[in-house]
Specification:
Strand content of chain B: 35-45%
Helix content of chain B: 10-25%
Order of helices and strands of chain B: HEEEEEEEEEE
Radius of gyration of chain A: 35 Å
Helix content of chain A: under 10%
Order of helices and strands of chain A: HEEEEEEEEEEEEEEHEEEEEEEEEEEE
Number of strands of chain B: 10
Shape of chain B: globular
Oligomer: heterodimer
Shape of chain A: elongated
Number of helices of chain A: 2
Distance between the termini of chain B: 70 Å
Largest interface: A-B, 42 and 38 residues
Strand content of chain A: over 45%
Structural class of chain B: mainly beta
Radius of gyration of chain B: 22 Å
Distance between the termini of chain A: 67 Å
Structural class of chain A: mainly beta
Largest sheet of chain A: 6 strands, antiparallel
Number of helices of chain B: 1
Strand order of the largest sheet of chain B: 2-1-3-10-5
Largest sheet of chain B: 5 strands, antiparallel
């Protein structure tokens, strides 16, 4: 299945549809039923006698159910090539007994390319991916009923893939009890049983319950990698030069001499696919130049005048460090260029 | 009558009733349990079957059949069968059956019994009509006596939590 499943609906529908305590009565629990009868002998005014049945006892068997969920909704942007691209998943044991799950990842067809399937890691509990602190997932970690683990599935993206090409993979969680059954049950159906494959029975018999495959005995998740390299380019160009030697500070020679105004423009271009976020332009002027007007000067952002003062808009000039800073925020690739212009003075 | 004779007579009278309890009427109760499943039949319909209770898991339905038998040699009257709804299960609404009996339920662990329309629970200070999941006990009151050697049965279904 290449369809992406929304994290929220999958998780809620599966976990909270169960009756009580999330996963149902624990495997191994005994349900005992003792009925009683009362009756009279000797007609009216006779004595009432009560008798009990022997208890009818049922041991609740283990039901295997699992849910896999991810916060990766939509396509996962990658570069080409790219190494150790990480996808975060939660494996939740929604059955009523302890169970370990085997996690597999496969490349799907019907896409532009395959990725190199790499190591699957078990998160060490800090919900941060770290290939040295997190351990390789061993396909044998038992998850108690109603609890979850976080795993990191890594892939390497091949080179030479163009923007907008996609690769689909599928990650699945399979019951270890059914996989390890002999012969291995590789395609179990709801209602299939592994005799004595479940948690111990609480009836003092020293036996294990059976493991019964549930309606969600295995779980899958599809993810799509989208090659979407994004590049932010900046070009600085010199504009007008005014030597201020003419009447009313007009230009005479156009030469860059001390006291002359030199106009600069910065053109920012975003290419590729996706959004560049938190785009900040800094221009550390050489010591020979200062912004004309200093802290009272102006910086033009896409034709709109901004003050050199900081805090009031997205442009500022720091006279101490001789640096111009402009915050452009988020720019979508392929849109119009952003142009910043300002006038400097040669010291 | 001499003192000894009257004592013997008294003892005889005392002993006989004890013997007669065992000889006259003894009602035994047996509980059978089944897994209750729905089996599809033609035309998209399905039928209910009671089968061996193997591999019961949460969500499964369990059917209990109470079989009452008069093993004595005298009729037994005023027969009342009582069954608490087992722990970790919920009574399945409408499933209680018993030919020739009146069926009532309790929501207070067996202190009082009534028909469903007369059962109420308290929730957040409000009095609400009790529903099947509130029932704690079931009672069958048989309408007639069981003759010597006669058997009767009642049943109901629960769902495992």
């Amino acid at each position: 299945m290449n369809k992406l499943i929304s994290w929220t609906s999958l998780l809620l529908a599966s976990l909270f549809a169960m009756q009580s305590h999330g996963a149902g009565t624990s495997a191994g629990t005994t349900i005992s039923n003792t009925a009683s009868v009362s009756y009279e002998v000797g007609g009216a005014g006779g004595t009432t006698i009560t008798n009990e049945s022997d208890p009818a006892i049922i041991v609740v068997q283990e039901l295997i159910n699992v849910v896999i969920s991810s916060q990766n909704t939509g396509n996962v942007s990658v570069s080409s090539p790219d190494t150790e691209v990480v996808l975060k998943f939660q494996i939740s044991n929604t059955g009523n007994g302890d169970e370990a799950f085997i996690v597999q990842q496969v490349n799907l067809s019907d896409d532009d390319f395959d990725v190199s399937l790499s190591t699957i890691y078990l998160d060490d509990g800090d919900e941060e991916f770290n290939s040295t602190l997190d351990t390789t997932y061993d396909n044998a970690t038992s998850i108690p009923s109603g609890e979850s683990i976080t795993i990191w599935v890594t892939s390497d993206i091949p080179g030479s893939r163009e923007n907008n090409q996609t690769a689909n993979i599928q990650v699945s969680a399979l019951s270890k009890t059914f996989n390890d059954d002999s012969p291995s049950q590789t395609n179990p159906q709801p209602g299939d049983v592994v005799t004595s494959g479940g948690d111990p029975a609480d009836d003092g018999s020293n036996t294990n319950t059976d493991a019964v495959y549930g309606r969600s005995g295995a779980a899958i998740w599809s993810a799509t990698f989208l090659v979407s390299a994004i590049e932010v380019g900046i070009v600085k160009a010199i504009g007008e030069i005014n030597d201020n030697l003419g009447l009313n500070n007009t230009n005479v020679s156009g030469k860059p001499i001390p006291g002359a105004d030199v106009e600069y423009s910065l053109t920012i271009t975003v290419t590729g696919t996706g959004d560049a976020t938190n785009v900040t332009v800094t221009d550390s002027l050489p010591s020979e130049l200062t912004l004309k007007g200093g802290s009272n000067g102006s910086i033009f952002v896409n034709g709109v005048e901004r003050t050199a003062a900081s805090g009031d808009d997205n442009a500022s000039y720091d006279a101490n460090t001789d640096t111009i800073t402009v915050e452009l925020g988020t720019i979508t690739a392929g849109g119009s260029d952003s142009i910043i212009t300002f006038t400097t003075v040669i010291q | 009558m001499s003192f000894n004779e009257s004592v013997k007579k008294a003892l005889l009278l005392m002993v006989l009733p004890a013997i007669s309890f065992n000889a006259f009427a003894q009602v035994e109760l047996k509980t059978e349990m089944y897994k209750v499943i729905e089996v599809p039949i033609e035309n998209g319909a399905s039928k209910i079957e009671w089968i061996q209770p193997n591999s019961i898991t949460p969500g499964d339905r369990v059917g209990y059949r109470l079989i009452v038998e008069n093993k004595g040699d005298k009729p037994a009257g005023n027969i009342v069968l009582n069954n608490p709804v087992p722990e970790n299960t919920l009574y399945v609404d409408g499933s209680a059956r018993g030919a020739n009996s009146s069926i009532v339920f309790s929501v207070d662990q067996g202190k009082t019994f009534a028909k469903p329309e007369n059962l109420f629970i308290q929730k957040d200070g409000k009095k609400l009509q009790a529903t099947a999941k509130d029932y704690s006990n079931i009672r069958w009151i048989l309408n007639s006596a069981l003759k010597a050697g006669e058997k009767g049965s009642v049943q109901y279904v629960v769902q495992v939590k």
